[in-house]
Design brief:
Layout: E1 4-9, H1 14-23, E2 27-33, H2 37-47, E3 54-55, H3 58-61, E4 68-71, H4 78-87, E5 91-94, H5 102-115, E6 119-121, H6 129-139, E7 146-154, H7 158-161, H8 184-194, E8 200-206, E9 224-230, E10 235-241, E11 250-257, E12 260-263, E13 271-278, E14 286-291, H9 309-323, H10 331-349, E15 355-356
Parallel strand pairs: 1-2, 1-4, 2-3, 4-5, 5-6, 7-10
Antiparallel strand pairs: 7-11, 8-9, 8-15, 9-10, 11-12, 12-13, 13-14
Helix pairs in contact: 1-2, 4-5, 5-10, 6-8
The protein binds nicotinamide-adenine-dinucleotide.
Amino acid sequence: MKKIRIGVVGVSRGSTYVKVFHRNERSEITAICDPNDINREGAQREIGLEDSQCYTDFDEFLKADIDAVAVVTPIPFHEEQVVKALEAGKDVFSEVTMANTIEGCQRIVETVKRTGRKYMMAENYIYLDFIQQWKKFVDDGRIGRIHYAEAEYVHDIRDRLFDCGTRKNESFWRTYRPPIHYCSHCLGPLMFLIGPDDYVVKATGWGNKNTIVPDLWPSTIDMQVALFETKQGRIIKILRSQVTPRTPHIVTYNIYGTGGSLETGRTPGYDTVGMRYFEKTDKEMVPMNCNGTKLDAPIDIKFGGHGTSDYTGAQAFLDYVEFGKEPFTTAKKAAELTLPGIIAHEAAVQGHVWLDVPHFE
Ligand SMILES: NC(=O)c1ccc[n+]([C@@H]2O[C@H](COP(=O)([O-])OP(=O)(O)OC[C@H]3O[C@@H](n4cnc5c(N)ncnc54)[C@H](O)[C@@H]3O)[C@@H](O)[C@H]2O)c1
């Protein structure tokens, strides 16, 4: 069987996908690209690439022997690199979020349509094992129609927003990313559970204060809360912070339906004990394992991170490229999971007004 040849651009977080695609029997890494010598040489050594397979220039990298590109660079580069890769005839697996502007998302959606290439946003949290298990409960009708959902992602990454010693920020791309812009780890799994046909149409946001880090960088806003209204009338609440002191970080999900509810636990890590209540069969809330890690997975599956979701998400991309099996996060859905965060921040800045969220068909 011919392996899918993958090139990875950006090999900090991208070094995970170098390993995941390298060790997968269906794919191979044939090129990497990163101007940072330490990161590039580290990834090169990790899987034994030739010097000729390692690039510092993105346009040269696109000429390498690759079928697909994994874009794992800082978000401000996504629009340009994704569009160039699609136009060069490559399928694209792009890290979250899709882009940092409305126009960037629109351009990617249009380029996918025009080129006919495949695009998948690598929203790995959808592939946390318990989210996949919850989806079966939802599809079996165990919790009825979801009418409300919420998620929280609080992760103190002050050291990735600015230099905590000098308080300078020149080499920190996340400095200008408002917390709610990075909402797809929350919104992605919730919309996956709700189903493919619904999407956010209106957004409002709260949170425009910097007291923990008293500088006016949007990334250091203490907390942001977004409320979303969906096309089919659902309400979604998301809480985000990148500076609030809380160690370790936490990611939680709650969904409420007309026939029951599901919620994760609040203990550290991706494997927690949550609760479920199915009105038809349970007398009251029942403790339930919410494992981000697929327990019966072969050992190889653990080469990624975030439970086993990095590996499983990469598998979904290979299924898309090889068999045309559409993942949840095609370009249209990636825009639907990215734009609400961009609009919620704008709504917070304008004094928590409600704003329409653009939608691209
Ligand atoms: N899904 C997840 O759980 C998860 C976790 C972490 C990061 N991310 C995403 O991964 C992406 C990268 O984040 P990171 O933490 O690795 O950032 P980072 O700043 O740690 O590293 C970025 C890497 O990209 C390289 N780079 C920068 N500009 C480049 C360019 N123009 N061409 C090629 N390489 C370039 C840098 O040299 C560096 O090695 C972002 O989109 C981020 O949102 C996702």
